[in-house]
Design brief:
Organism (chain B): Marinomonas algarum
Protein name (chain B): Hydantoinase/oxoprolinase family protein
Strand content of chain A: 15-25%
Domain Hydantoinase/oxoprolinase N-terminal (chain B): 7-180
Number of strands of chain B: 36
Distance between the termini of chain B: 48 Å
Shape of chain B: globular
Oligomer: heterodimer
CATH architecture of the domain at 6-75 and 219-259 in chain B: 2-Layer Sandwich
Largest sheet of chain B: 10 strands, mixed
Strand order of the largest sheet of chain A: 2-1-5-4-3-6-7
Distance between the termini of chain A: 75 Å
GO cellular component, one term (chain B): cytosol
Shape of chain A: globular
Helix content of chain A: 25-40%
Number of helices of chain B: 17
Number of helices of chain A: 13
Structural class of chain A: alpha+beta
CATH topology of the domain at 6-75 and 219-259 in chain B: Nucleotidyltransferase, domain 5
Helix content of chain B: 25-40%
CATH class of the domain at 6-75 and 219-259 in chain B: Alpha Beta
CATH superfamily of the domain at 6-75 and 219-259 in chain B: ATPase, nucleotide binding domain
Number of domains of chain A: 2
GO molecular function (chain B): 5-oxoprolinase (ATP-hydrolyzing) activity
Structural class of chain B: alpha/beta
Radius of gyration of chain A: 24 Å
Chain lengths: 548, 697
């Protein structure tokens, strides 16, 4: 059978289905809440050279480019001669994987008729990795937990028991963590089985020709999109809270012909705490933001990702070298799309939304009995919550919706079964969306307390408390967030803190910026927003100039 | 004519209202156009039509069973009642905040579906029940009285009530219901602890709102239907098909109309399930392909797979997450935007894409000659010789090959740099690949290997595509049953009376409490049995119990079948082993050292059906003489082949036609690829068998 153009296209479709199946297998078997509920994972198939050919659409953008870059590291460190049938490799090296120790990347070589033809890779966020636990308080990566360098997890079918033992003895929730490692290996195996079916069906002996077809087509389409942009260098700057000091995020976006470079020179230096971002993660989110605006429909693979060139000076907070602490690198990482989209707005107005809450407000709660001798059991509860998205050029921003992250929230009822706490409120925060012809999305209010007999500790990793999401084109800023107790005590936005027994934690999540002059918003919409309580009377009168 | 059974199934679909009459075992079927203004009129017309065909009078009918997509349409088109929603203080926006997720990651201009009840119609009251079902905050009677007064004064047509953790304790919801019953007895009030007492507030609130929203309309419609049937002499009992593939009384349907949403597709699954059961095929995939979408359902041991949640009214290319998730029992289906009318185009990477946009019936595919400019799957089938231009829809719709070719050339071939035949092949191959992938993922999600399944295909488009799908999925057996054009209506006639009662009750196995479980199961069974008896009277029933279980720390449960019996403390081990067996079946392993917990419970009581008459499938047959041939493009061989053309009605049991072949009938054509042989069966079905398997027999 000679393969036609249509055959290559069918195989491309099939590979996307193969990696979706790989991802589905992982989601269904994983223990990590963030994998299951939040899609904090990634799955893909690579050729022998380590070029990514297809990636599951399921998955969070932070892993997109990051995992795509990881396989060449594996090839280099394992060594081509040492790649054997039945092998599986892993690492959680933040600089060679996906940015923090909690993410394991598992790579399995694929063999067809005894010949090495490619790789499957999958990444997942595990429940625990030892150290201080998931939070920003460490000063070096060594405090953040166990780092497993690139090595064999399975060597020609034999599980590396020594490694499993080391991991088992260095993490909390051992069974879940080890279980997730096996889930990762199993999902690669599921993808591998489908790939073998496809190679049989199409009589393929290697993947390189197909890989060239996919990558060349995707690259050409991506380059054409970039070439259509006006040449020039476009700057943007955004301030965010950071941990111990505000962070200045800067980018220069240069378009020249069909090349694009996002350079973060001028961005603040590193933090002493775990909000630093490894370069791979910065690149992942910069690329994601730009791709949404420029080439959203082109599937992710090496061909469509490579044209987005991203750089940051080593040592800045967006290119933090080892051994910087990086545990909650997502906070600043989630702001990267806002920064690059702001620059892109100067190049092609009308595409980038206004700034949004952007960084997730993840709450990791530890419930501890107030009386340690009571026999009550401790538990850990993880919640994902989102503020408002920025307004778009022709649409209001989405309220309480994750962007750029791809996560979902959990049911409050389900969360209350995980640990001894009560969620008293989880509602939109009225008036938190930035005013504009198109209104920013609203943030939300969350009120939580421990049940009787318990107190709660929580790891704060919250931002946009000092610096709001800015509006665009005369749109107003979104509301800032706040963290406090119901007695009025103001808490910090970052770090581990106590909610004493009997007290309630009140989180107010930031809103998104508005887009366009609020005075241009039709009066009927302003009145409807006021009646529904989306905006306050003060906003109606002062921003929208409504006569009551 | 007094002893006879004349049972009528009626399925109101988006375009057609299908009628099937079973007169003492003989089927008569008919189709009339759906009447949107007076749906019951089409039913009366259709019943009249089949009665004429069968030579009986309307007064001879002994049972009418009805299913409809009208409830779903009413949700999609937002034509329901003006509804107020009352919820716990602090949770006004649950139905607006949804999952806080974007179902499409790369679309900066994404919009989310708006809730059925807007914020100004959502009210809160101070009340609270804990996760364990204890009342933490009682409702203040004066606050409630003021709220009721305000809501009544607003003139709402329906009320939905959904409180946090009400599945665990309904007392506060019932208090609100009673307050309305007193203040405004005529007002329709739905409460979440009765409509859908399952954990997870977003789904439960959606469900009670959807129920309230369609309830006045459905109740009025069903009332009218029964009256008008009586007026024409159909005085027999009328029953409704529900989404989980069973029958309930009209009264129950009027109270819980949200249970009717997927009744049409459920009928299709029951239709396929009966064939699966009679052949003794324990692992079957049903495949239903119409003009706009294709639906896939797993049927194991003769029963369609059911689920407790599903998503209705998806707004964005059928994307998961773009609709309204509801928690109500339903036959589980995967639906994708792939049908005969699906439009093909070429994207920026010069790749052919098909659907989910559909040319629908107006203007329809380019070949319909009604002004359609875009090439569709039907156009591609025509160009590849799989459809006969003169025999489509029994010759009612003459198809134009030149117009199909023109559209294919302009929009696909010339853009992708292919010749016309390659382009048409590409279009069908892409759509077949999409459907095959969806089917494969669905079986994987259920821990199964699709190659071990047989396929039963029905719906207008399925027989054209099913054989190619089987090739792609390594499936060796494919059944094309007779009467497939009105499969759902026929399926209604094979459904038992059934009712599924569900409830959230959280329990860790380390805190296993047999008394609580026994109390819950017996109350759920009593509830379900009562609904079954409302329709069926005092009859033999079966009881199925499912516990939704997971390892502590996981977010999703798996359904585990357990016995209906009195449990004692030592039975905790049974729960554990059953769960571990189920987990192993799905995921291929179990995990030591983790706790196990149960979240939701369900009991289905169903009337016992007469055993299905077993039919032995003829897996080989005698090749008949071929008198006519035509050419079609065989996708696996990538070339045009000369195929036998045979009229389906001429086939006798045991006749075989070796592929390539086209089996023609009025409603559709079955394509038998070169790799398969078709064998006519005793019950007028056709079995397509992979030749490799035949050789082995």
């Amino acid at each position: 059978m000679t393969l036609s153009n249509v055959d290559y296209q069918i195989m491309w479709n099939r590979l996307v289905a193969v990696v979706e199946e790989q991802a589905t297998t992982l989601i269904r078997t994983a223990f990590s809440t963030s994998v299951r509920e939040a899609g904090d994972l990634s799955a893909g198939v690579f050729d022998c050279r380590g070029r990514m050919i297809a990636q599951a659409v399921t998955g969070t953008p932070g892993h997109v480019n990051a995992m795509a870059e990881s396989v060449p590291h594996f090839i280099e460190e394992i060594g081509s001669d040492n790649i054997c049938e039945g092998d599986v490799y892993l690492t959680n090296d933040p600089w060679k994987g996906t940015g923090h120790l909690h993410d394991f990347t598992m790579v399995s070589p694929a063999f067809y008729q005894g010949k090495h033809v490619g790789f499957f890779a999958a990444t997942a966020h595990v429940v625990d990795i030892g150290g201080r636990g998931y939070g920003p308080d460490a000063n070096e990566v060594y405090e953040e937990g166990l780092l497993v360098p690139i090595m064999k997890f399975i060597d020609r079918g034999e599980v590396n028991k020594g490694l499993v033992n080391i991991i088992r003895n260095n993490v909390r929730e051992q069974d879940q963590v080890i279980g997730d490692l096996y889930s990762l290996a199993a999902c690669n195996a599921a993808g591998d089985a489908r790939l073998m079916d496809m190679m049989n069906e199409f009589n393929l002996l290697e993947l390189e020709t197909l890989s060239d077809f996919i990558i060349d087509n995707s690259r050409a389409a991506t380059l054409a999109r970039i070439a259509a942009l006006p040449d020039g260098t476009y700057h943007n700057e955004m301030m965010v809270d950071g941990y111990e000091a505000a962070v200045d995020m800067r980018v220069a976006l240069t378009i020249a012909g069909d090349t694009l470079l996002a350079d973060f020179a001028g961005t603040s230096g590193p933090s002493k705490f775990g909000v630093n971002v490894p370069m791979v993660y910065t690149r992942a989110y910069a690329c994601y933001g730009l791709k949404c605006a420029i080439a959203p429909d082109i599937p992710n693979n090496t061909g469509s990702l490579k044209p987005f060139d991203v750089t940051a000076p080593e040592g800045c907070i967006l290119n933090a070298p080892h051994p910087a602490p990086v545990s909650v690198r997502h906070v600043l990482g989630h702001f990267v799309p806002d920064v690059v989209l702001g620059a892109l707005h100067k190049c092609i107005p009308g595409v980038s939304p206004a700034e949004g809450a952007s960084a997730l407000w993840n709450v990791l709660l530890s419930a501890r009995p107030t009386d340690p001798t009571s026999g009550l059991r401790s538990s850990e509860i993880l919640m994902f919550n989102s503020g408002g998205m920025g307004a778009r050029a022709t649409l209001d921003g989405l309220s309480a919706t994750a962007f750029p992250s791809g996560v979902s929230t959990m049911s409050a009822e389900a969360t209350e079964h995980v640990g001894p706490l009560t969620i008293w409120q989880k509602d939109l925060l009225e008036g938190s969306g930035g005013s504009g012809e198109f209104r920013g999305g609203l943030g939300q209010t969350i009120v939580i307390s421990a049940n009787e007999g318990y107190e709660l500790y929580f790891n704060a990793m919250f931002d946009r408390i000092q610096f709001p999401a800015r509006g665009r084109e005369q749109g107003k800023n979104g509301g800032v967030g706040s963290v406090m107790l119901d007695d009025g005590t103001v808490l910090k936005g970052k770090g581990r803190q106590l909610i004493p027994a009997g007290r309630k934690l009140i989180l107010q999540l930031p809103g998104g910026g508005g887009y366009g002059d609020p005075k241009k918003r039709p009066e009927a919409l302003v009145r409807a927003d006021l009646e529904a309580g989306y905006i306050t009377q003060d906003q109606a009168v002062n921003d929208y100039c409504l006569t009551l | 004519m007094t002893q006879q059974q004349a049972r009528v199934g009626v399925d109101i679909g988006g375009t057609f209202t299908d009628i099937a009459l079973d007169l003492n075992g003989t089927l008569f079927t008919g189709k009339v156009l759906t009447n949107y203004h007076q749906p019951e009129q089409a039913i009366l017309d259709g019943i009249h039509l089949v009665c004429e065909r069968a030579g009986i009078a309307e007064t001879d009918i002994t049972t009418v069973i009805h299913g409809t997509t009208l409830v779903t349409n009413s949700l999609i088109e937002r034509r329901g009642a003006r509804t107020a929603f009352i919820t716990t203080d602090g949770f006004r926006d649950v139905v607006e905040m949804r999952t806080e997720n974007r179902f499409e990651q790369y679309d900066l201009n994404l919009t989310l579906p708006t809730p059925l009840v807007k914020r100004t119609d959502r009210y809160t009251v101070k009340e609270r029940v804990s996760a364990s079902g204890d009342v933490i905050t009682d409702i203040d009677p004066s606050e409630l009285a003021a709220l009721v007064e305000r809501i009544v004064a607003e003139g709402y047509e329906a009320i939905a009530v959904g409180f946090i953790h009400s599945y665990a304790n309904d007392v506060n919801e019932v208090t609100v219901q009673k307050a309305f019953a007193k203040a405004a007895p005529e007002l329709s009030v739905s409460i979440s602890s009765h409509v859908s007492p399952q954990m997870r507030e977003f789904q439960r609130f959606n469900t009670v709102i959807a129920n309230a929203y369609v309830r006045p309309q459905v109740a009025a419609y069903l009332g009218r239907l029964v009256e008008r049937l009586k007026a024409t002499g159909v005085t027999c009992p009328v029953f409704m098909m529900h989404s989980a593939g069973g029958l309930i009384s009209v009264d129950t349907a009027s109270e819980f109309p949200v249970r009717l949403l997927e009744s049409g597709p459920a009928g299709g699954a029951i239709f396929a399930a009966k064939f699966a059961a009679s052949y003794g095929e324990n692992q079957v995939v049903s495949f239903d392909m119409g003009g706009t979408t294709a639906k896939i359902c797993l049927i194991e041991d003769g029963k369609p797979k059911t689920a407790n949640t599903f998503e209705v009214a998806r707004t964005y290319r059928f994307a998961k997450g773009s609709g309204m998730p509801l928690s109500t029992p339903v036959v589980e289906m995967v639906e994708i935007g792939a049908g005969g009318g699906s439009i093909a185009h070429v994207d920026d990477m010069k790749q052919i894409r098909v659907g989910p946009k559909s040319a629908a019936s107006e203007p329809g595919p380019a070949c319909y000659q009604r002004g359609g400019q875009h090439p569709t799957v039907t156009d591609a089938n025509l160009l590849l010789g799989r459809l006969d231009p003169d025999l489509f829809a029994g010759g009612d719709i003459p198809l134009s090959v030149p117009l199909a070719g023109e559209a294919m050339t302009n929009k696909v071939a010339s853009v992708a740099g292919l010749d016309q035949e390659q382009a048409a092949f590409g279009v069908t191959e892409v759509v077949d690949e999409n459907m095959a992938n969806a089917a494969r993922v669905h079986t994987v999600e259920n821990g199964k290997e699709i190659g071990n399944f047989a396929m039963i295909a029905f719906g207008g488009g399925a027989p054209l595509h099913a054989c190619r799908l089987c090739e792609k999925l390594s499936m060796d057996y494919l059944v094309i049953p007779p009467g497939a054009g009105v499969g759902s209506a026929i399926g209604f006639l094979n459904a038992p009376f059934s009712y599924e009662a569900t409830k959230g009750m959280y329990q860790r196995l380390t805190e296993f409490d047999p008394q609580r479980i026994n109390a819950l199961l017996s109350s759920l069974r009593a509830e379900a049995l009562e609904f079954v008896q409302r329709g069926a009277g005092d009859i033999d029933t079966t009881t199925r119990v499912q516990a939704f279980m997971r390892y502590t720390g996981q977010g999703g449960e798996i359904a585990i079948d357990i016995d209906y019996k009195d449990y004692v403390a030592s039975d905790v081990e049974t729960f554990r082993t059953q769960f571990e067996a189920g987990y192993h079946r799905l995921f291929g392993r179990t995990i030591d050292g983790l706790g196990i917990e149960i979240t939701n419970w369900s009991i289905t009581v169903a009337s016992t059906l007469a055993p299905v008459e077993p039919i032995t499938l003829r897996r080989s047959g005698k090749q008949i003489a071929i008198t006519k041939t035509r050419e079609f493009f065989d996708a696996a061989l990538r070339k045009v082949v000369t195929a036998a053309e045979v009229q389906r009605h001429t086939l006798q049991p045991g006749d075989a036609v070796s592929g390539p072949a086209v089996i023609v009938e009025d409603e559709t054509s079955t394509i038998v690829t070169t790799g398969y042989t078709v064998v006519a069966q005793d019950d007028k079905s056709m079995l397509l068998v992979n030749k490799k398997i035949m050789g082995a027999i």
